[in-house]
Amino acid sequence: MGLRLGDTAPNFTADTTEGEIDFHQWLGDGWGVLMSHPADFTPVCTTELGAVGKLKEEFAKRNAKAIVISVDSVEDHKAWSADIGDAMGCAPNFPIIGDTERKVAELYGMIHPNEGDTSPVRTVFLIDPNKKIRTMLTYPKSVGRNFSEVLRTIDALQLTDNHKISTPSDWQDGDDVVILPSLSEDEAKQQFPDGWNELKPYLRMTKQPNR
Ligand code: BEZ
After folding, report:
1. Is 3.40.980.10 the CATH number for 13-144?
2. What is the pLDDT at residue 1?
């Protein structure tokens, strides 16, 4: 059975471009964004790692940090990082794991052998401060990821952890949110004194609470 949402993110030690890490220690008490890519010195991956580097402050605002993995060596990652800086205007400012033995890639189910070859596909694991896996995204090798969606999902997880709400389809920070159907009318009045728009008895839209 593979990893499922709510599972504790498996711990590992690994060599990275920023030295040896113990993953749980590296996570500390913040959010982690663990991402695999198929291979170094490849075009889509180059755009992706440049994009992730540019989002360092956005991750930091959310008490989150990125870590990237492929089955190439740390030496290759370091040589490729210079190319990423040249091509994308931002060299990686996060650790890249050298997983030449595929230990981490296998542990997290990042290799999908029917997707071309045995290099990892493009995965994203969002891990909360309790080390629980809260989101898993999986993209094919041919499709570069949308990192705005990664930030949006972290925002939604942090909001829904702190309030009795869910986020609706296509929600963006600041949009109206959904009151949990499990909340009674009286409980909802206490939690959301400014009221709500009842589209259906089970679909009550209200202003985003932390605004
Ligand atoms: C790329 O990053 O462009 C790529 C890497 C592996 C397979 C396909 C595309």
Report:
1. no
2. 75
Q: Please give all residues whose beta carbon lies within 6 A of any atom in ligand 1, as ranges.
A: 38-39, 42-45, 141-142
90-142 confidence digits (pLDDT tens): 999 999 999 999 999 999 999 999 998 999 999 999 999 999 999 999 999 99
Structural fold of domain 163-206: Antioxidant, Horf6; Chain A, domain 2 (3.30.1020)
Mutate to test the pocket of ligand 1, among 36, 141, 142, 145 (most ligand atoms within 8 A of CB): 141
- CA 137/CA 34 separation, integer angstroms: 10
85 C-beta neighbours (distance < 10 Å), count: 16
Indicate which residues carry an active-site annotation.
45
Q: Which element (helix H / strand E) includes 76? A: helix 74-88
For ligand 1, atom 8, name the residue with the nearest CA: 141
Domain ranges for the chain, please list them: 13-144, 163-206
